[in-house]
Design a protein that fits this description.
Oligomer: single chain
Number of strands: 6
Number of helices: 9
Strand order of the largest sheet: 3-2-1-4-5-6
CATH architecture of the largest domain: 3-Layer(aba) Sandwich
Distance between the termini: 6 Å
Order of helices and strands: EHHHHHEHEHEHEEH
Largest sheet: 6 strands, parallel
CATH superfamily of the largest domain: HAD superfamily/HAD-like
Bound molecules: 6-O-phosphono-beta-D-glucopyranose, magnesium ion
Shape: globular
Length: 219
């Protein structure tokens, strides 16, 4: 039977734009200052993970214990470095084909929402000129629990009045795929083949990808 698609929920970092590289350089700089090594495999663990949980990961890795004020100061420093890179972003940094795919969803009457852990999401959407393309935006400012908790996606589906089993989440992060599955959603991994084995299928990019392709792959 054909999959009945009601709506799509998009993660932001690593799905719509390649901000993961900016998070990486900022976290790496902070980790180095703390004397903790930080490479791309560490960064993969932090994709989809909130700012505070990301800092806790680095502190755990370095066996460091810090008081709360220091943690807040470090997160602010990392965010300043991150935002300095985001300030130079343009719509050219949108992944190829993703906006065309969103436009096709809209033309076919499907709901569209953002489901991101980032508190910087509104700024990034604005810089990339796509803030008005979503029916709902759920981001790090409106959630209590970080992925893999499904809160961000359940709120998105609720705002779109869509049923999770008929709603597709697009995610590049292990924690995000788990969040989608924990909420009862169908999930498309965005990334290299084999990187997100729990997803229904993995897409290397949106270029040339259509709503019919999506429905076919999920039917
Ligand atoms: C997620 C990123 O989308 O947002 C994580 O994948 C990031 O790497 C998290 O830590 C929180 O982002 P921000 O912009 O609020 O620091
Ligand atoms: Mg992501």
């Amino acid at each position: 039977m054909a999959f009945e698609l009601q709506a799509c929920l998009f993660d932001l970092d690593g799905v719509i734009v390649d901000t993961a590289k900016y998070h990486f350089t900022a976290w790496q700089r902070l980790a180095e200052e703390l004397g903790v090594s930080f490479d791309h495999s560490d960064n993969d663990q932090l994709k989809g993970v909130s700012r505070v949980d990301s800092l806790e990961y680095i502190l755990r890795k370095g066996n460091l214990e810090l008081d709360n004020d220091t943690k807040v100061r470090l997160m602010d420093r990392k965010n300043d470095w991150y935002l300095a890179q985001v300030a130079g972003m343009t719509p050219d940094e949108l992944f190829p084909g993703v906006v065309a795919f969103m436009d096709e969803l809209r033309a076919k009457g499907k709901g569209l929402a953002l489901g991101s852990s980032s508190r910087n999401a509104p700024l990034i959407l604005d810089r990339c000129g796509i803030a008005d393309r979503f029916d709902a935006v759920v981001d790090g400012n409106s959630i209590t629990f970080s992925k893999p908790d499904p809160e961000v996606f359940l709120k998105g589906a609720s705002e779109l009045n869509s049923v999770p089993s008929k709603t597709v989440v697009f995610e590049d992060a292990l924690s995000g795929v788990d969040a989608a599955l924990n909420g009862g959603f169908r999930v498309v991994g965005v990334g290299p083949e084999g990187a997100l084995p729990k997803a229904d299928f993995t897409l290397q990019g949106f270029d040339g990808f259509t709503v019919d392709h999506l429905v076919d792959r999920l039917s």
